[in-house]
Amino acid sequence: MSVDRSSVWPYVDGEPGEFLYSRYAHPTGVEAETALGDLEGGKALLFSSGSAATLALLLALLEPGKTVALAEGCFFGTGVMMREELGRWGLHTIQFDQTGPAPDDVDLIWLEAPSNPFLTMPDLQAAAAHPAPVVVDSTAATPVYLKPLDHGANLVLHSATKYLTGHSDALAGAIVTRDQADYDRLWTFRQRTGPTCSADVAALVKRGLKTLRVRVERQTETATALAERLRSHPRVETVRYPGFGGMLSFDVQGDPIPIERATRMIKNATSLGGVETTMESRRRWEGERVPVGLLRLSVGLEDANELWADLDQALGSG
């Protein structure tokens, strides 16, 4: 895999060329951005993490006093950033049920498809009919299962750390849009503030995109089978799965901690989207926002029957 790690490039005949300083852009990053943009049907920009992409979008396109309609049950860190960090700078946040229309008089609609860890899907048609711009965090859906720009969204956000890279070995974020003005504003913001994705990580994003479809289709097949079996397990109260992708969550009776500690193949770890299956109780991070017994399962590429055997024995441990 070719990686251009240069931080500077010589001027051409005394003038800056296509690349001059890696904080602005670099060849490996542009290659990965082009590949992702082609998949999503827009123009992509890579960032140093999903959180960096989220922060860049909010700071670049909004200003103090603006209001974001935020999908209930979406990634916990998104709400924390908006309320506890940017709230101090004058950003207002209103949570709403994304399966219906967003409230009036907001300046940005923030959806997640599907939400993490509640796995609800947004009403994209209702959101597109709203006068405010629409952002869709499509980390879990990936462009294999959803292309939000085709459904009226203005911007798509990814924590590329998850399914896009797919191997739990890179930290990256991405924003995709068809609006040239938004793209230019985000590019300028990234250039000025510095959350650029490194060349080595961009190469891993590009690598991941090559196998994205085969990975997530396999993960979907396995997750579907596990969701069906979990629904019939006597210790499982609720199973949440949108019908695609590698992420699901389920509620168990009693304390979930002994269950997450009892798995042998499934790793007790946070994050999601990798080739190895992970599971964790989300209560430790999200508190009362989630049910006590909620476990989030990120399905990898292992054999479905072996994963079920591991889950089944763990569920019987408590």
Structure overview:
By secondary structure, the protein is of the alpha/beta class. It has two domains: 27-211, Type I PLP-dependent aspartate aminotransferase-like (Major domain) (Aspartate Aminotransferase, domain 2, 3-Layer(aba) Sandwich); 212-315, Aspartate Aminotransferase, domain 1 (Alpha-Beta Complex). The protein has helices at residues 27-40, 50-61, 76-85, 124-129, 142-145, 180-193, 199-231, 257-262, 283-286, 304-315; strands at 43-47, 67-71, 92-96, 108-112, 134-137, 155-158, 173-177, 236-240, 247-252, 267-268, 278-281, 294-298. Strands 1-7-6-5-4-2-3 form a seven-stranded mixed sheet. The protein has a five-stranded mixed sheet with strand order 8-9-12-11-10. Helix 3 links the parallel strand 2 (67-71) and strand 3 (92-96). Helix 1 (27-40) packs parallel to helix 7 (199-231) and helix 2 (50-61) crosses helix 6 (180-193). The mean pLDDT is 97.
